[in-house]
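USER: For my understanding, would you kindly supply a protein sequence with its structure tokens?

ASSISTANT:
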Amino acid sequence: MESWALLIGSTLSAGTVLAIAALGLLINEKAGIVNLGAEGMMLCAAIAGFAAVVHTGNPWLGFAAGMLAGALLAMVFGWLVIWLGTNQYATGLALSLFGVGFSAFVGIGYVQARLPEIPKFTLPWLRDLPLVGPALFRQHPLVYLTVAFAGALVWFLYRTRSGLILRSVGESPESAHALGYPVRRIRLAAVMAGGALCGLAGAFISTVYTPLWVENMVAGRGWIALALTTFATWRPGRVLLGAYLFGGVTMLQFHLQASGVQVPSQWLSMLPYLATIVVLALISRNPAWIRVNMPASLGKPFHASS
């Protein structure tokens, strides 16, 4: 029972990283923008958050630094693709490559750095319950805030006027522009919000999930978060469930190794990425279903004169 509680708890923590980043990318894509730079933004935010905590000792300032780094990189990306009309896919890949190299360069001096001791978070009374206590009620507050944010995002997108405007920009930016909405500014705001959430995910990795800094420590989670938006057919609730599914697959490899399963560690490390490929292959068998759920203008440039 103790090992199952540990697996569930680690699944929630691992899934939170993916959920935060994927929800940010979902906001981007609801506005019609594809940002393939999630991996680079998360890496830059990871080193920014780690450095902030090393120098201030405050983990919440680390989250703020990560969100700021992600938002700034997303702002540059948004300026290039929204105002200068560069290709979204090529620009996103360039951002990802830049983030990998820049974070490695900046992080050289922090490889041996240590974070101050951060107190463990638990919920009184509930933390001692059998199984569910250690599994559900000894998590970092950001785990619970992520679940709440997913619910708030559902309400925002489908129950508010602002959410309707955001979705209309992603479906038909020409119609939204004809109605007088500032399509470019709305898209930039969505891109920066998505970048801030990717930054929060990166800072969570380096300050809470694995409290240290090593080069390329995001380890492909940005790409998995991108796949999650398609897997979830652009629905926040499904993004959350998918994130925990992939988080569980990620942690299963460690659970199997600890249980003495005689499988090469390299095969177990492949599990999250193999699951991503399998899920995307299964979804792609029904392209009509994807087209129905996908924002109609996703990845397409918008020109105000059109």
The chain has one domain: 2-111+130-293. The chain has 14 helices and no strands. The CA atoms of residues 171 and 202 lie 29 Å apart.
